[in-house]
C-alpha cells in the first residue's frame, strides 16, 4: 500500500548478509572427527573459522547449487552433525531460494531413504562419518542427483554424482544477487520423529525463520547478543537446532559446535574453553553434564564456568530436581518448550518479577514449560473441542497458533491435527497441559502417554519427575499397565544409579506427600536402561508394549490400591 | 499456502492481549498534574495502575470509539503527554482497527489545526492541561466530531461533542472480539517536524509496529524484559516514544511516565524511586539530568541509581563528552538513531566483542550512531545517486530500507525522498553519514546543515561535539556563514556554562588536535540560549538566518583561515 511502510520481505539472506557485513571477524568453532582411537572411538579436532568465511562459502554453496540446475523450491537434504559446514548449508541453501531439508541421522537407513524420497530431495549433503551409507542411499533414492560429502574421506568415493563438499564449494562462484523471495516461500523443512505412523514433513518459511530468530533473542527467551558464545548441543538435524544457528548469526554471537561429541566431559571442557555463555540441549545431555560436573567438583578440580549464564533445556520436560542440581553449581537452567511443528520455540519459563528464581516457588515455576513468547497463543480444549479454563488446575489438550506454527503437514497429511475455532486456525499439539492466569503452561503428558485410571487422568510426567528426585534413581519412565477394574494403572520403570538400589515401597513413600493417593504407581520394575528414540526422548511406546500385561502382583512389592 | 506456516497476522491486539493475560499485575506509574504552585508551576501527583487495568480500559476505549460510529482506518488524534491514559490509547485505538494519530504538543495551535485537518481526524484525545485550546481547535477543525479530555478539569466544558475521557471509557463496554485486521493495515501515524515545508504524515502499520517492538527488545538494542522498569522521557506524542510503550507492554516491563515533568531533579528522583532500569530521551534531557547528578554528588547526597542499566539517547547526536560524563556516574549511555519515517529504530551503538566500552576506542564507537538492528539496511550514495564505499571515511547521503521504513508519506507527498535502486525501494534520510566495514554508521550532518567550504564538506555535528567537550561550554551549534572566497565557513554559536567564559582562540586551540586545519571555525559568537524546536532539536535554520551575514571580522577574536 502506498503511503504506509515498505513491504520489505523477511528472508534468510538478511541473516547471511548480517554476518558478512557486520560480524565477519566473529568465530565459529567446530569439533570435527580427526580419526579413531584403538577402541574405535572418534578423536576430536577443534576447527576454527569466522562468520566472514562462513558467509563466503555459504554464498559459494548457493551459487554452486544453482549451477547444478536446481530451481526455486527444490529440496537439498542434509544428513549431518553440528559444524560450520552445516551452518553454511543453513544460510546458503535458503538464500539460493532452495529448501534446506535436515534429516535426522539417528533414523534407520530405511527410514532415511523413505524421507528423502518423500521430500523429493535432489541433492544430499552427508557428513563424512556416514559416507558408508552412500551406496545404500543412492540405490534407495533414484531422484537424488548429487551427493556432497562434508569433510575429508580416506579415499574418494567413485560413484557418479558424488562430490567432495569443500572442493565443490570453493570451485563455485559466490551468489551475489539473491533471487527474489517472498517471505512465505519455503526455506527449510524437517520431519516429525514419527513415533506413530509415517514421519510428516513440516515446512518452515523465510518469514517464520526470521520471526523465530528475532523472537528467540530477548532476555526473557534465549538472551542472545553479539557478545555471547553459544553452544547448541541440540542437533542441527532436528528442528533447526531450535533455531539457534539463525538467531546467533542474526545477532553476531559466536557459535560453538560439538559435532558427534555429546559426553559430559567433552561438553564441559568445550563450555569452559570456549567461554560459552549460552548452551541448549535435551535433559539426557544435561544429565551427563551434571554427572561430570559433580565428579570434577568432588575431585577438587571443578570446571570454570562462571561465564555460563544460561543452560536452555527442552525436548522433554526437565525435572525440578535437575534444575535445582545445576543451581548448586551456580548454573541457571531455563526450560523452553516447542515442537517440530512450532519451529520450535513456543514457551520459555522465566520467573516473573517478585519471585526469587532460587526459592521453592521459583523452582516450581521453572519446572513448568513457561509462558508463550510474543506472537504465540496457547489454548486448552476438552475432548469435544470446547475451551477449558486457564486456572492452573484443569488439564486439557494443548493447542497453539502463531506465525511459526505449521498450517498443515507437507503434502497435506495429518489434517486432523489442524482445525479452526471461530475462523482461527489452531494446531493440536497432542500434549495434555494446564495453563494458569499468568500464562504459565505446564505439560502433564503426551495425550497418548496419559494414564486413564477409572475415568480420571494421571500425568506420567509428574510422577516421573517426582521419582527422579529420589537420590537412588538415575532415570524413570511411568507408563500405563492394563487393569481389570480401573482400565489403566501407573507402572514405574526405574533405572537405579550405579551401585544403588531402591524398592517400590521406598519410592511410593518418597513421592506420596506430593500426590493424591490414587495417582501413586501400583508397581515399580527395575531396568538397566530405557529405550531412547531418534530425538533423544524415551520411547514409551516400546515400554508400554513390553509391560502392558504387567500386573502389580508380579512386582517385588505389594501394590497400593486406590 | 497449504503445508507451510500459519499466516497469523502481526497486529497490535497481540500486545494488548499479552498485558491482559500474562502481565496483569505489572505496574504503570504516571506523574500527573495535581495543581499549580504559587509561581504557576505544576505540582506532581504520582498515579499507579496496573497492566490489567490498562488493558481493561483500553478495550473499553476501543468499544466506546466504535460505538461512536468510527469505521476501520478512521484517525483518532491525541494531544497528550506521557501517561497511562495515553498508553490506553496506544493499545485501544489500533486494536479497534482505528489509527492512533499522535500530535506534537509543542507545535503552534495553528499548525496543530492544520495537521488535524490534514489527517482528517474524527476524534481527539486532549490532555486536561491543554483544555483551553479546545474552542480554538473546534473552530479550526470542523471534521472533528468528538473531543475526550484526559484527566479532570476544574469545571465541565459545555461544548457539544466534548466529553470526559474517564467517564467515556468506564461507560463503554469493552471490545472483546477484535476486528479482522491485516498486518499491513494502518495502526498509527505521526507527522514529521516539518522544519521545511508542511509537516508530512507517516503511517505505521500493525506489522511495522509489532516487528519494531520485537526488534527493539534484545540486549544489543534496548534490552527490555519483564523484570525491567522503563522510563521513556522521550514523548509519546512523537514517533511513538521510540516504540517503548509497545515494546514494554509486549515484554511485560513496568512503565514509568513523567507527564509534563522533564527537569533533572524530577527525572533523577523518578529513576531512583521507581527502580528504573532503562530510560530513553534526547540529549537536552540528559544534559539536565547530568547537571542534577553532578549537583547531588557534589552536595554529598548522590542519587541511588545502581539498578539503572541503560540510558538510551537519540533524536540528536550525543556528544562523546556526555557519554563519558555519565560513565563517571557509572551509568551506561547507549546511542540509538532513527527518524519519524523509520518508526524510529534504525541503529544502536553497542560495542563489539573485544572492545572495552570504557576505553577510548569504546567511547569513540559509542559516539557513533551504531549498527543497523536486524532487518534494517543502510546505504550511502553520492549526489548522483551512485553507491559510495563503506570505509568509515567517505561521507555520503544516508539511505535506509526495511519493514518499518515509510514507503511514501501520507497522501503521497514528498515523493522525491523515496526512490528505487535495482528494483528495491529506499528512503533518503537527508543525513550525511559514513559507514564502516563493521556496519557502524556515523552521522556527519543533516544535508542542509553541512558546511560547504571550497567544494569540500565540513560536518557541523563533529565540530559541535568537540566544542561541547570543553568544560566552559554548555551548548554549541555550528552553522555556515557566507564567505566570499570559500562560499561557506563554519561559525560556532556557543552558550557558556553559568559563570564561565571562553574565547574563540581557546576553543580553537582545544579542538585543533582533532581536525584538519581548514575545518576549524572561523569565528565564535556567544549566545544566552539556542532556539529549540518542537522535537527538542536545535533550530539551526533560525540560527543560520540570524548569522548568515556574519563575518569573522565581527567576532571577538581573529579568524583562523584555511
Automatic annotation (TrEMBL), chains A, B:
Q: Which family does it belong to?
A: Belongs to the ATP-dependent AMP-binding enzyme family.
Q: What lineage does UniProt assign to this protein's organism?
A: Bacteria, Thermotogati, Deinococcota, Deinococci, Deinococcales
Q: Name one GO molecular function term.
A: ligase activity, forming carbon-sulfur bonds
The record's PANTHER family line, in alphabetical order, gives:
LONG-CHAIN-FATTY-ACID--COA LIGASE, MEDIUM-CHAIN-FATTY-ACID--COA LIGASE
Q: What is this protein called?
A: Long-chain-fatty-acid--CoA ligase
Question: Has UniProt tagged this entry with the keyword Ligase?
Answer: yes
Superkingdom of the source species: Bacteria
Fetch the Gene3D superfamilies from UniProt: 3.30.300.30, N-terminal domain of ligase-like (3.40.50.12780)
Which residue intervals define the domain AMP-dependent synthetase/ligase in the entry?
Answer: 45-410
What keywords would UniProt list here? Ligase
Task: List each copy of the AMP-binding enzyme C-terminal domain by range.
Answer: 463-537
Amino acid at each position: 500500500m502506498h503511503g504506509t511502510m515498505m513491504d520489505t520481505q523477511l528472508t534468510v539472506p538478511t541473516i547471511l548478509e548480517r554476518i558478512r557485513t557486520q560480524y565477519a571477524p566473529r568465530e565459529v568453532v567446530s569439533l570435527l572427527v580427526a580419526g579413531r582411537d584403538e577402541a574405535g572411538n572418534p578423536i576430536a579436532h577443534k576447527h576454527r573459522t569466522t562468520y566472514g568465511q562462513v558467509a563466503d562459502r555459504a554464498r559459494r554453496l548457493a551459487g554452486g547449487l544453482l549451477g547444478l540446475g536446481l530451481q526455486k523450491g527444490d529440496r537439498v537434504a542434509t544428513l549431518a552433525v553440528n559444524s560450520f559446514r552445516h551452518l553454511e548449508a543453513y544460510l546458503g541453501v535458503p538464500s539460493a531460494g532452495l529448501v534446506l531439508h535436515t534429516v535426522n541421522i539417528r533414523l534407520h537407513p530405511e527410514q532415511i531413504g523413505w524421507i528423502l524420497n518423500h521430500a523429493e530431495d535432489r541433492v544430499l549433503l552427508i557428513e563424512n562419518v556416514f559416507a558408508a551409507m552412500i551406496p545404500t542411499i543412492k540405490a534407495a533414492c533414484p531422484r537424488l542427483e548429487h551427493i556432497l560429502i562434508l569433510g575429508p574421506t580416506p579415499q574418494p568415493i567413485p560413484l557418479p554424482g558424488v562430490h567432495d563438499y569443500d572442493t565443490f564449494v570453493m570451485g563455485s562462484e559466490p551468489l551475489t544477487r539473491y533471487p527474489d523471495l517472498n517471505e512465505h516461500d519455503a526455506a527449510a523443512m524437517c520431519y516429525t520423529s514419527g513415533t506413530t505412523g509415517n514421519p510428516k514433513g513440516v515446512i518452515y518459511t523465510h518469514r517464520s525463520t526470521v520471526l523465530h530468530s528475532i523472537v528467540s533473542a530477548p532476555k526473557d527467551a534465549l538472551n542472545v547478543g553479539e557478545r555471547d558464545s553459544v553452544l547448541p548441543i541440540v542437533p542441527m538435524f532436528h528442528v533447526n537446532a531450535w533455531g539457534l544457528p539463525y538467531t546467533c548469526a542474526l545477532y553476531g554471537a559466536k557459535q560453538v559446535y560439538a559435532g558427534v561429541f555429546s559426553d559430559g566431559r567433552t561438553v564441559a571442557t568445550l563450555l569452559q574453553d570456549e567461554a560459552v555463555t549460552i548452551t541448549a540441549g535435551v535433559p539426557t545431555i544435561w544429565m551427563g553434564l551434571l554427572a561430570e560436573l559433580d565428579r570434577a567438583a568432588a575431585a577438587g578440580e571443578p570446571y570454570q564456568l562462571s561465564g555460563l549464564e544460561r543452560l536452555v533445556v527442552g525436548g522433554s520436560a526437565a525435572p525440578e530436581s535437575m534444575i535445582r542440581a545445576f543451581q548448586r553449581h551456580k548454573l541457571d537452567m531455563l526450560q523452553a518448550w516447542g515442537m517440530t511443528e512450532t519451529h520450535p520455540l513456543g514457551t520459555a519459563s522465566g520467573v516473573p518479577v517478585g519471585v526469587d528464581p532460587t526459592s521453592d516457588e521459583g523452582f516450581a515455576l521453572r519446572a513448568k514449560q513457561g509462558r508463550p513468547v510474543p506472537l504465540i497463543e496457547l489454548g486448552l480444549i476438552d475432548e469435544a473441542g470446547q475451551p477449558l479454563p486457564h486456572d492452573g488446575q484443569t488439564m486439557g489438550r494443548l493447542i497453539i497458533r502463531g506465525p511459526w506454527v505449521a498450517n498443515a503437514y507437507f503434502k497435506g497429511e495429518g489434517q486432523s491435527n489442524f482445525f479452526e475455532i471461530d475462523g482461527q486456525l489452531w494446531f493440536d499439539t497432542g500434549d495434555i497441559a494446564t495453563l494458569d492466569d499468568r500464562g504459565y503452561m505446564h505439560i502433564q503428558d503426551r495425550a497418548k502417554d496419559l494414564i486413564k485410571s477409572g475415568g480420571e487422568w494421571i500425568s506420567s510426567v509428574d510422577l516421573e519427575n517426582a521419582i527422579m528426585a529420589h537420590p537412588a534413581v538415575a532415570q524413570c519412565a511411568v507408563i500405563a499397565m492394563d487393569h481389570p477394574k480401573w482400565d489403566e494403572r501407573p507402572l514405574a520403570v526405574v533405572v537405579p544409579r550405579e551401585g544403588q538400589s531402591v524398592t517400590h515401597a521406598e519410592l511410593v513413600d518418597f513421592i506420596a506427600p506430593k500426590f493424591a493417593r490414587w495417582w501413586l504407581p501400583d508397581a515399580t520394575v527395575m531396568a538397566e536402561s530405557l529405550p531412547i528414540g531418534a530425538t533423544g526422548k524415551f520411547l514409551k511406546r516400546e515400554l508400554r508394549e513390553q509391560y502392558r500385561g504387567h500386573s502389580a502382583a508380579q512386582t517385588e512389592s505389594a501394590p497400593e490400591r486406590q
